[in-house]
Amino acid sequence: MVLTGAGISTESGIPDFRSATGIWAEVDPFEVASMRAFSRDPERVWGFYRTRIHSLLAAEPNVGHLALAELEERSLVQAIVTQNIDMLHRRAGSREVVEVHGSIRTAECPNCLWSEQTADVLAQLEVRPAPVCIHCREILKPGVTLFGELLPPGAIERAVELARAAELMLVVGSSLEVWPVAGLPLEARSFAVVNRGPTALDARASLVIDAGAGETLSALVAELSRASPQSAS
Questions:
Q1: CATH code where residue 35 lies
Q2: How many domains does the chain have?
Q3: pTM (whole model) above 0.85
Q4: Catalytic annotation on 54?
Q5: pLDDT at 202
């Protein structure tokens, strides 16, 4: 299985969160991306996510996303567990994707649990500062996991199940600092890391490659094609 973080999507022009130039270097996540902030000022939270959703929808899958989809097509990857909310794995062609931090695909009503599709949410945001539920008129919450919120039901359980069954977990573009997802590699029999910069679990990894996701994963697919040309797509 593969575990991906923000580092795989930076090559699609999406900034990460915790680097010196990341999103949280410019804005306090607890002011715009936490349950406390949503309860206190949902319009401010939606002001942040309105811009973010537009930027994520404008991004395209990069060679790293495409390489992982190719590895799944070859039955070398069983599933992708991702911390990303950008839906780029699915758009690249990956089929088995577990989104442990939710996604921008929908917004949800905290009251009646109605899910609204992104296109309809953005249409509402053109005329009001926060979208509301069409059934009970409560303000919708972004369909992503905010700080102080539990992970989506079933997602982390499925991720743990996949990790424990995997011969190898490949961690791509994650600094492994956000728990409980950061503990998933420890559930696998072994794990390898591809990331720019160190991670919290480098000392326990079977292999660490300090490099970009796209260049590394595309090189892997190319090498597999040379080694087994008959299996190439």
A1: 3.40.50.1220
A2: 1
A3: yes
A4: no
A5: 96
